[in-house]
Amino acid sequence: MSTEETKPVAKPEPVKELPKFEKSIADKLTEKFGTKAAVEFVKPLRIRVKVAKEDVVEVAKFLRDEMHFDHAESVTGVDYPDAKEIEVVYHLGSYTDSELANQVLALATRAPREENPNPGSDNTRLPSLRDVFYSVEFHERECFEMLGVYFTGHPDNRRLLLPEDWADLPPMRKDFHIKGR
């Protein structure tokens, strides 16, 4: 009798087929932009695409004009202090194309993150998508205020929630701490 234990042989997982409709959208983006638009995932009703900040306006216009994603449902941001970047994600949808009614396309781009932010006067900047999707107007203002991302070309980079004289770190950054606690 052998003292070695026998390990069960792992069965390979079946390859999941990507949803055809969503894959067709991802394929059109890849065909048009190549590596400039990195499709990060394709799932039922969801696609995530990451682009460099230099390409975000061009990709957004293509998504609006050619792919019929006609509005941004929301805009959010994520602070990555270890990578020294802040990611802004636009969740795009369509009111006008019934095939896209339930789809959400996440368009993500990143800006450099300053250790000592001075919003509007540092390198944490992204081009605004306000002229592509009017619906981002207040969302970009919130990202400016809460994460310190200044949107170049936005007609109104002012605070929405915090006092105009706010002098602390943007409150959605991971190194923000409430004073006195």
Keywords, separated by commas or semicolons:
NADH dehydrogenase, 181 residues, alpha/beta, Beta Polymerase, domain 2, five-stranded mixed beta sheet, oxidoreductase activity, acting on NAD(P)H, transport, NADH_UbQ_OxRdtase_CS, NADH_UbQ_OxRdtase_30kDa_su
How much β-strand is present in the residues? Answer: 25-35%
CATH topology: Beta Polymerase, domain 2
CATH uppermost class = Alpha Beta
Q: Biggest sheet, in brief?
A: 5 strands, mixed
Which consecutive residue ranges, at least 5 long each, have pLDDT under 50?
A: none
Number of domains: 1
Let me know the average pLDDT.
Answer: 91
Distance between the termini: 64 Å
How many E-type strands?
7
- Order of strands across the main sheet: 1-2-5-4-3
Q: Look at the helices and sheets and give the structural class.
A: alpha/beta
Based on CA atoms alone, the radius of gyration comes out at 21 Å
At CATH level 2, the architecture is 2-Layer Sandwich
Provide the CATH superfamily. Answer: NADH:ubiquinone oxidoreductase Nqo5 subunit
Helix content bin: 10-25%
Following the backbone from N to C, one meets helices and strands in this order, namely HEEHEEEEHE
How many DSSP helices?
Answer: 3
Quick one: overall form? globular
Keywords: Transport
Family: Belongs to the complex I 30 kDa subunit family.
Domain NADH:ubiquinone oxidoreductase 30kDa subunit: 49-180
GO molecular function, one term: oxidoreductase activity, acting on NAD(P)H
